[in-house]
Amino acid sequence: MLTKLFNRWKKKDPVIERNHAYFKEFNQERPLASYEFVVFDSELTGLNPKRDEIVSMGAVRIRDFRIVVSETYHQFVKPAKPLPKDSTLIHRITPEQIESAPKIEQVLKDFIEFCDGALIVGHYIDLDMAFINKVCSKQLGAPLGNPCIDTLRLAQVYREEKWGNYYDQFDYKVSFNLADLTKEYGLPEFPQHDALQDALQTAYLFLFLTKKLKQGGITTLKDLYLAGRSWRWLF
Amino acid sequence: MTREKKGKDVHSVTPEVVVDFLKKTIPFHQLPKDTLDKIAKEVTIDFFPEGTIIFKQQETVVEHLYIIQKGGVKIYLKDEEGMVTLKDFRGEGSYIGALPMIHGATANLNVETVEDTFCFLLPKETFLKLINEQAGFAQFYLKSFSDKFIRTAYAELRHHKVAPRTEGALYLFSVTVKDLIKREPITIQASQTVQKAAIEMARHHIGSLLVRDEQDEIIGIITDKDLRNKVVAKARPYNTAVSDVMSSPVATIDSDTICFDALLYMMRNRIHHLGLKKGKKVIGVITSHDIMVLQGSSPIYLFREIVAQNRIEDIYPLAKKIPLIVRTLIEEGAKANNITRMITILNDHILSRILFLLESKFGAPPLPYCWLLMGSEGRKEQTFKTDQDNALIFQDPENQEQGRACSEYFARFAAEAVEHLEKCGYSKCPGEIMASNPKWCQPYSSWQQTFDGWILKPEPKEILHSTIFFDFRPGYGTFDLGFRLRDHLSATIPQQEIFLFHLAKDCLEARPPLTFFRNFIVEKDGEHRNSLDIKKRGLVPFVDFARLFALKFGLKETNTVRRLEALHEQEHISKELFSETVEAYEFQMQLRFIHQLRCMEEGREPDNYIRPSDLTDIEKQTLKEAFGVINRLHSVIKETFPMI
User: Count of domains in chain B?
Assistant: First the structure.
């Protein structure tokens, strides 16, 4: 019994093996358009990865550095615990809607395959990845190997670049909320709090920031990495 | 490619964003839902920061149709010497790249973003397939702006903005018959002759008389038709007694009956005249015609009514019916140009009738005169709300005495005319540009001096205030006086370069009401916050342009569209510019009409403030295209007057 558990702990699922293999020798010097990105957003029952769960996942692909609107992933997920009332108010997913939805374990592999070979982009992506990786580790033996890019971090860098003024850093009114950034930059707006719409909104933000940073000087993935220097790569 | 496959499996949803957008974009809006869904799946979204060159002329191989979701681009041509000619601006909902793909050539122009721009990219094969298979697609992309939006936009305007045709009917249900009474009933003794009856009817310009007996009781009615059918056609003598041919008893209804019931009653009984009773007393007579006029369905009724009035007071209510007629015209699909012409004719008739009746009141004028109409009246471009802009010109007096007589006569005459016009609903000019102002009631030679003063020694500020004078036309009286003045102007102005220069400079003051493309410039504060003054921002630049060029080339037209036509006929402006300008101008006029009609139906004073948020996307887009034409007009002005 114990051995079996240990083995499972130790042995990685082939899906996650393949996922990791792709990024083993990862060349960051190619032009951005040659990479694939998956822009990901999830709706959660709360903000604590230890306690809370995913209720829906949305993702859209970027290829040739263009949003491919037909390659999307959208999945409601039934959490193990019943849906707390207050979260319904935020994302408008009702208990009925997820009643018939599969559990996260059933759809995880699909999602990983959708992300195969792509960099994962999200707004405050650490949070979403913490939830995903918790399940990945538990079920498949390891977290995802996809490098991640945080649009929130990009937005911070862009703001610093745009307003070099030191006192601006103390402007507590500055918001990095996805909806506020969308408004501030004049991006097309979508309804909030549907995981897929939010992923699409984030994809617009990602294209915008990447091309606006360094006056358009970002051409390779490495450039992007250097521009955001301090962000964490989730290897 | 497992990923490729994955992307298109169960998780692939119809991209709502794209479908929703295309549904509102010409010509995709006409595609059936399943075609639209299919196309939407082919779309990718790209982003171009401000200043990105998307197409380079003769270089870029265009692989997609670019539909602008947000932002804007400029299109320009660069010649060998590097000279740049701006060709067009395109904004949200517009496209680029169609022509090169259709022609299988490289980009023929340069396209550069002037804002951060998101585009939907539709692959070439899909686009070409649409061109080949969908009716109207090829036509749309190959035609110029003139025809492009106009039809769809007009159809939308009619469809969305004019409530179903109930207004006429509403009047029938709300107005009582006593409101239609114009005068005390005219009666005649039953024993009088039919000839006397005919004389009475002619004297009062009416079609019927009530017939009374010795006790003054109303016992019947005699009408035009009775005289025709029962007297003349039957060759009865003129001294036949009225009682022999009258209809008796006269059909009556209570004066509080609503018009609809009265009309039904008349139709049921096949009669055209009804006596209206208050208690036992007959207080008036109405005809089916009165009710039809009320319905406002036909301009010809109103026209006849105006001409038939003998008392100025009776003209007031007729003038107020003009909006009803305009409404009918709009419903029937008339374009702004026809509507303004109709309004002009009706207004002119009202003016003529008032002045004619005033002349008979004051006695013949000491010298021939001409009533001049200026501003929008002069250009024959009136809408519902028309301020008075008028002046009076009279023949030069031969001596002082005659001069005094003229001044005195015309001052009284004009003052009264202006009052009557006001009561007809033409509010007074806030700037006092009216014939009642002695400054604008002058003999011919003074007028010529005034104009010469503006033309020969132009002061920029005065030009600003005098532009509406240059749109004058004769409205009533001895037209020759007006024509002579016009001849003088068209002979003088073309040589007056400084005057034209100031006028041109003034034209360029007006900025098109778009901040690039993102939004319309709207009023920032006050009562009309977030609305757009379509007259000032949209129409005036067109009017100014037409005036400037008409004056420069000595044309005598005053109407904006007619001026443009004349300019085009004499090859001063290109055919493309001409048709674009006229379409853009007329579309805005139409929008303004419908807006004003709505104002009136909501019980507000008609104004020129349009809320962009009230417009449908196609209207917005068309309006933006129309404003885009202003830029082109301005570049023509700059080319023609290079020293500005």
Answer: 3
